[in-house]
Amino acid sequence: MTDLRAALTAQPVIAVVRAPEIPDAVALCEALAEGGIAWTELTFTTPDVTRHVAAAAKAGCRIGVGTVLTAEQAREGIDAGAGFLVTPGLRPAVAAVAREAGIPVVMGALTPSEVADALDLGAAAVKIFPAKAFGPGYFKDLHGPYPGIPLVASGGVNATNARAFLDHGALAVCAGTDVVPPQTVAAGDWAEITRRAKAFVASLD
């Protein structure tokens, strides 16, 4: 878990891919990496996602799986080679599977009580969702009672506000449709994905 936190500190962007199809998961991850985003989260909302995770993991990509709701999905993701799991909310069964496998989980939360529960469940980091609804200042507020807590901003984060989330205490941010629009991914337009990733990363400087 410490390793994940350190790695996210060095490269604080996770691309979250929600696409109706992924023609080439390895090419997708490589396009993002070329643009400066090393971490990719594929989600269970994409059909046959574990096949894509397995291909990317075999190629050495920093790949995780998200929208993990059940213990069964957690096991499927880990068996496919996911290096980390992400949940949209508090999922004790998912946390138990991740803990047993030694795989870090980034657990979704919103309220201060949920943040505490996520930490108690062993989350390596806590994903605040939807981040845009509460704004960057909310992250500074959470660090009052929870100093040093690893928070990840997710939901409505884009090139215009990502820097503000980091400045107010987020360890990392999730880049969604601003970088990986579903139809662009489905079309396999990797050059456009790289362009968008570069623009997002540049906004953090």
Give an overview of the whole structure.
It contains eleven helices and eight strands. The protein is α/β, with parallel strands linked by helices and 205 residues long. It has one domain (12-203): Aldolase class I (TIM Barrel, Alpha-Beta Barrel). The chain has an eight-stranded parallel sheet. Helix 2 (25-34) packs parallel to helix 11, helix 3 (49-58) packs parallel to helix 4 and helix 4 runs parallel beside helix 5. The mean pLDDT is 96.
The strand count comes to 8
Number of domains: 1
Structural class from helices and strands?
Answer: alpha/beta
Give the CATH H-level superfamily: Aldolase class I
Strand order of the largest sheet: 3-2-1-8-7-6-5-4
Poorly predicted runs are none
CATH topology: TIM Barrel
- H and E order: HEHEHEHEHEHEHHEHEHH
Measured as a percent range, the helix fraction is: 40-55%
Number of helical segments?
Answer: 11
CATH architecture: Alpha-Beta Barrel
Can you tell me the overall shape? globular
- Termini separation: 26 Å
Strand fraction: 15-25%
Name the CATH class. Answer: Alpha Beta
Protein traits:
205 residues; eight-stranded parallel β-sheet; globular; single chain; TIM Barrel; alpha/beta; 8 strands
Please specify the SSE layout and strand pairing.
Elements: H1 2-10, E1 13-17, H2 25-34, E2 39-43, H3 49-58, E3 62-66, H4 71-80, E4 85-86, H5 92-101, E5 105-109, H6 112-120, E6 125-128, H7 131-134, H8 137-142, E7 151-153, H9 162-167, E8 172-175, H10 182-186, H11 190-202
Parallel strand pairs: 1-2, 1-8, 2-3, 4-5, 5-6, 6-7, 7-8
Helix pairs in contact: 2-11, 3-4, 4-5
